[in-house]
């Protein structure tokens, strides 16, 4: 399954080579051009039927994931770590991880309960007290296996869960990458660019650079977003709800979705009977915040996949949502052929 | 002038939903512009051509900017009883909202309510809701949609030499720019008067407008804070003290040539002015200044009390000083000497 391969591929911000190579090999058979720009964005072009007279439409998803990074090796051969992107240290204790480009297994260690003092029980974990054990005898041994700056990703297998759900890491934003890989199969009137961007999780860094090169007439960001629909979250605090379809985002903290694109997305979903939801919160930023203000401005909006437990070692998504997410993106592009660009 | 200020203050235009205010400003300025366009984000850009073409060289471009958006709220969720949950648009204090009313672009009015709170200090946006008088979700959805924005419902008050109303930030500056546009015609060079969108969300409209215009100099007009009410933190700007010439805020250090030209122009024309250093806050000049290879930029500020509340207050004498200073700045920049900058 392609999504499983994408989910399991490594790629913290700045170290996206593995996931980029995977995407590249998937799309090479059916796109017309592939370019890797100087900061590592992969920009693919599926040429339109109208050639140079046509418009340029850009789909964007970020390849990078949140994770950790080796920042030190102590004399016992244990690795000190730092967060890459927004990671809550409380979710890290006792997790299995892979270190470096070659996925060397490691364990985030924890103190056995036998040795914990009463006061430790009330204290939450901070990043400085965590370390990764890669089974090295000492510093010298460890240095043969890893080096400072190496990525640490979660060792989470992507697989079906229960009735119609999937679990895996890095759903934010490999689901978006997946949707673009699918969308690039089809030729449209306009030139369709797929921008697989770098370094979103450390400050939306890749997308503006990609947009500057593509100069799109319209852009759509495909994202993964929070879906904390569990336990005591009040209804209005549930940003999205898995099972209710892809989430159309009218605004977030980084950008106001172009209302013409938002309306077209809603019309497209309603006409085709594709379930959708409107995201209920406006927190968080996306690549739209860098694509939008490019040059004289690029009309852009965001469609997000609801992902429970985002930015943790394991997320849960609904398989129907995924199908509808890919479908909505495809139907939206079809509508640009049929009705023209809304902008 | 007060009529114009009243009209602009009471108009609807939260960040991201500037259609109505843009239309109103457009009808005010169209007659003074040689070309009017709306860029892809929605900013209104009015080009005024010089009386005479610049001899030899191509005309340079002067960008004058005021943002037309205002703070407000946006509906994020409609519950089954018809209450609206919302998020702020721009910098809002939840305490300011208590007892206030809002109005949507289609005229629907709502009032703010809060969940039960043991201590009013715990008031946060997610403990609040808007009641639009709907009896259930369906009735509410017939009136508003998730993603719709609303602004404070507040009428303009004429207090004599001072006036108060909502959205003085930055409609008072829109009025200043419109009035300066009426009074001045550049001798040389083109002037682009920009009424920008989405300033309150991070200077977004000015950024793309400036890229499109590619100006040689930029002037933003915006409100600033005040330091002259009881027990207020010290701040070198008072209502009635004249136009405030910005030295620095968190978005910009005014280009020294632009700032000094403002000071010299005020002195030369006998326009009252005060110098301003604002610790927190920014204006569109911050975005204009960093466009492309950089644009020498500065800000003319209108002192405004109670900023980001429905009862912002300005002094019409300050407003007049800002109009005169802006018009004189355009004259200086569009003269053969180019104000020493162009």
Describe this protein's structure.
The complex is a heterodimer of chains A (343) and B (342). Chain A is α+β, with helices and mostly antiparallel strands and 343 residues long. Chain A folds into 2 domains: 2-65 and 169-339, Zn peptidases (Aminopeptidase), CATH 3.40.630; 67-154, Peptidase M42, domain 2 (Elongation Factor Tu (Ef-tu), domain 3), CATH 2.40.30.40. Chain A is 27% helix and 25% strand. Chain A contains 9 helices and 17 strands. In chain A, the strands form 3 sheets. Chain A has an 8-stranded mixed β-sheet with strand order 1-2-12-3-13-16-14-15, sandwiched between helices. In chain A, α1 packs across α5 (171-183) and α5 crosses α9. The longest helix of chain A is centred in the C-terminal third of the chain and has 21 residues, at 319-339. Chain A is globular, with a radius of gyration of 21 Å. The two termini of chain A are 36 Å apart. With 342 residues, chain B is of the alpha+beta class. Chain B has 2 domains: 2-70 and 166-340, Aminopeptidase (3-Layer(aba) Sandwich); 73-152, Elongation Factor Tu (Ef-tu), domain 3 (Beta Barrel), CATH 2.40.30. Chain B has 9 helices and 17 strands. In chain B, a hairpin with a 5-residue loop joins β1 and β2. In chain B, α5 (168-183) packs across α9 (316-333) and α7 (256-269) crosses α9 (316-333). The longest helix of chain B is centred in the last third of the chain and has 18 residues, at 316-333. The mean pLDDT of chain B is 96.
Question: What features would you highlight for this structure?
Answer:
heterodimer; A: 343 residues; alpha+beta; Aminopeptidase; Elongation Factor Tu (Ef-tu), domain 3; 8-stranded mixed sheet; 6-stranded antiparallel beta barrel; 17 strands; globular; B: 342 residues; 2 domains; 6-stranded antiparallel sheet; 26% strand
Q: How would the blueprint of this fold be written?
A:
The complex is a heterodimer of chains A (343) and B (342).
Chain A: H1 2-8, H2 17-27, E1 33-36, E2 42-46, E3 56-62, E4 67-73, E5 78-84, E6 96-99, E7 104-108, H3 118-121, E8 131-133, H4 139-145, E9 151-154, E10 159-161, E11 165-168, H5 171-183, E12 191-197, H6 205-214, E13 218-226, E14 247-249, H7 259-272, E15 277-278, H8 288-291, E16 300-307, E17 315-318, H9 319-339
Parallel strand pairs in A: 3-12, 3-13, 13-16, 14-15
Antiparallel strand pairs in A: 1-2, 2-12, 4-5, 4-9, 5-8, 6-7, 6-9, 7-8, 10-11, 11-17, 14-16
Chain B: H1 2-9, H2 19-29, E1 35-38, E2 44-48, E3 61-67, E4 72-78, E5 84-89, H3 94-97, E6 101-104, E7 109-114, E8 128-131, H4 137-141, E9 149-152, E10 157-158, E11 162-165, H5 168-183, E12 190-196, H6 204-213, E13 217-224, E14 243-248, H7 256-269, E15 273-277, H8 284-289, E16 297-303, E17 312-315, H9 316-333
Parallel strand pairs in B: 3-12, 3-13, 13-16, 14-15
Antiparallel strand pairs in B: 1-2, 2-12, 4-5, 4-9, 6-7, 6-9, 7-8, 10-11, 11-17, 14-16
Helix pairs in contact in B: 1-5, 5-9, 7-9
């Amino acid at each position: 399954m392609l999504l499983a391969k994408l989910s399991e591929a490594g790629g913290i911000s700045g170290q996206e080579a593995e996931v980029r190579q995977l995407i590249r090999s998937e799309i090479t058979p059916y796109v017309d051009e592939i370019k890797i720009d100087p900061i590592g964005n992969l920009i693919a072009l599926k040429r339109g039927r109208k050639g140079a007279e046509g418009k340029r439409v850009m789909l964007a998803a970020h390849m990078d994931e949140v994770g950790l990074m080796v920042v030190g090796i102590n004399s016992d051969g244990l690795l000190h770590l730092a967060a890459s992107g927004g990671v809550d240290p409380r979710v890290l204790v006792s997790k299995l991880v892979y270190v470096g480009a070659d996925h060397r297994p490691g364990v985030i260690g924890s103190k056995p309960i036998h040795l914990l003092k009463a006061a430790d029980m009330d204290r939450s974990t901070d990043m400085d007290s965590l370390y990764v054990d890669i089974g090295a005898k000492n510093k010298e041994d460890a240095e043969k296996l890893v080096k400072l700056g190496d990525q640490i990703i979660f060792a989470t297998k992507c697989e079906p869960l229960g009735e119609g759900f999937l679990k895996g890491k890095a759903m934010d934003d490999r689901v978006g990458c997946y949707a673009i890989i699918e969308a690039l199969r089809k030729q449209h009137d306009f030139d369709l660019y797929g921008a697989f961007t770098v370094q979103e999780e450390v400050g939306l860094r890749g997308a503006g650079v990609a947009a500057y090169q593509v100069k799109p007439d319209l852009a759509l960001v495909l994202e993964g977003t929070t879906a904390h629909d569990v336990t005591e979250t009040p209804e209005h605090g549930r940003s999205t709800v898995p099972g209710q379809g892809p989430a159309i985002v009218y605004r977030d903290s980084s950008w106001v979705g172009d209302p013409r694109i938002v309306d077209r997305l809603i019309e497209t979903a309603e006409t085709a009977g594709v379930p959708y939801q409107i995201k209920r919160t406006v927190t968080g930023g996306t690549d739209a915040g860098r694509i939008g203000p490019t040059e004289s401005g690029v009309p852009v909006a965001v469609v997000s996949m609801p992902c429970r437990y985002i930015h943790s070692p394991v997320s849960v998504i609904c398989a129907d949502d995924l199908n509808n997410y890919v479908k909505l993106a495809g139907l939206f592009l079809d509508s640009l052929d049929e009705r023209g660009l809304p902008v | 002038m007060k009529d114009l200020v009243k009209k602009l203050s009471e108009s609807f235009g939260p960040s991201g939903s500037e259609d109505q205010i843009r239309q109103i400003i457009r009808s005010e300025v169209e007659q003074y512009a040689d070309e009017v366009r709306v860029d892809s984000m929605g900013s209104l850009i009015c080009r005024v051509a010089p009386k005479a073409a610049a001899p030899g060289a191509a005309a340079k471009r002067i960008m004058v900017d005021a943002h037309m958006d205002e703070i407000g709220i946006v509906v994020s969720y409609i519950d089954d009883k018809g209450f609206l949950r919302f998020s702020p648009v721009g910098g809002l204090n939840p305490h300011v909202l208590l007892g206030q009313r809002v109005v949507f672009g289609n005229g629907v009015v709502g009032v703010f309510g809060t969940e039960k709170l043991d201590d009013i200090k715990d008031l946060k946006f997610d403990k609040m809701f808007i009641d639009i008088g709907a009896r259930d979700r369906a009735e509410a959805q017939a009136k508003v949609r998730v993603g719709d924005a609303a602004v404070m419902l507040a009428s303009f008050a004429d207090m004599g030499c001072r006036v108060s109303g909502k959205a003085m930030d930055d409609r008072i500056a829109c009025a200043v720019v419109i009035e300066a546009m009426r009074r001045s015609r550049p001798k040389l060079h083109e002037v682009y008067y920009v009424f920008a969108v989405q300033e309150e969300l991070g200077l977004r409209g000015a950024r793309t407008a400036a890229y499109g215009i590619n100006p040689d100099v930029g002037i933003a007009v915006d409100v600033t804070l005040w330091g002259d009410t009881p027990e207020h933190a010290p701040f070198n700007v008072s209502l009635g003290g004249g136009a405030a010439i910005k030295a620095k805020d968190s978005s910009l250090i005014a280009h020294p040539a632009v700032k000094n030209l403002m000071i010299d122009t005020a002195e030369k024309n006998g326009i009252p002015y005060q110098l301003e250093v604002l610790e927190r806050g920014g204006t569109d000049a911050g975005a204009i200044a960093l466009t492309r290879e950089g644009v020498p930029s500065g800000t003319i500020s209108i002192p405004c009390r109670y900023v980001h509340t429905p009862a912002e207050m300005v002094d019409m004498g300050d407003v007049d000083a800002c109009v005169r200073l802006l018009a004189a700045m355009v004259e200086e920049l569009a003269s053969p000497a180019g104000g020493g900058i162009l």
